[in-house]
């Protein structure tokens, strides 16, 4: 399978919390954190296709995640982008680089953004994925795959407005 197909499959099969009753049909009964953060990452590639292979845990990234979260749940429900930022490293295309240059393995940093920023310098994508996201057509295609695989169809238009 080509690398495009590998990443399509990975985006379709993200490891997501699926405890019955916890998540709505809008998110296909699974936690939306990872797909929402990936949408933010893809948006950042659409804004700057020649960017470095570094996804930094910035306030901008946090605000983008929060905007998508509010789209799904309104203002009554909150979460943190630290959760998927940490846990995406278990999906086979995302690795964390600590501020000390080492791997980051302490799951307690996923609780909120302050500990995450203190411990993590950036996330690095698989090199092939980074190259593909730098191509506008693949960035849009991966975005469509994430939407179709992780959110009910009625929400897709709303995600396109942001």
Query: What is the total number of structural domains?
Result: 1
- Series of secondary-structure elements, N-terminal to C-terminal: HHHHEHEHHH
Q: What's the rounded overall pLDDT mean?
A: 93
Extract low-pLDDT stretches.
none
- Strands of the largest sheet, in order across it? 1-2
Features:
two-stranded antiparallel sheet, mainly alpha, 162 residues, 8 helices
Structure description:
This protein is mainly alpha-helical. It has one domain (3-14, 30-161). Helix content is 50%, strand content 7%. It is built from 8 helices and 2 strands. The protein has helices spanning 3-12, 33-47, 59-73, 82-87, 113-119, 127-133, 136-150, 156-161, and strands at residues 94-98, 120-125. The chain has a two-stranded antiparallel sheet with strand order 1-2. α1 packs parallel to α7, α2 crosses α3 (59-73) and α2 runs antiparallel to α7 (136-150). It is globular. 31% of the residues are buried.
Task: Report a brief summary of the structure.
The chain has 162 residues and is mostly helical. Helices cover 50% and strands 7% of the residues.
What topology does this entry show?
Layout: H1 3-12, H2 33-47, H3 59-73, H4 82-87, E1 94-98, H5 113-119, E2 120-125, H6 127-133, H7 136-150, H8 156-161
Antiparallel strand pairs: 1-2
């Amino acid at each position: 399978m080509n690398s495009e197909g590998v990443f399509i499959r990975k985006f379709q099969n993200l490891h997501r919390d699926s405890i019955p009753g916890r998540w709505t049909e809008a998110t296909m009964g699974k936690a939306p954190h990872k797909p929402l953060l990936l949408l933010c990452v893809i948006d950042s590639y659409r804004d700057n296709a020649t960017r470095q292979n570094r996804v930094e845990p910035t306030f901008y990234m946090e605000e983008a995640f929060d905007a998508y979260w509010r789209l799904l749940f309104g203002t009554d429900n909150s979460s943190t982008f630290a959760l998927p930022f940490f846990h995406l490293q278990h999906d086979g295309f995302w690795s964390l680089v600590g501020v000390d240059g080492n791997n980051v393995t302490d799951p307690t940093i996923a609780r909120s953004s302050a500990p995450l920023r203190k411990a993590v310098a950036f996330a690095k994508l698989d090199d092939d994925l980074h190259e593909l996201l730098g191509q506008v057509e693949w960035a849009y295609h991966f975005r469509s795959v994430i939407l179709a695989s992780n959110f009910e169809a009625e929400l897709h238009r709303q995600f396109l407005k942001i």
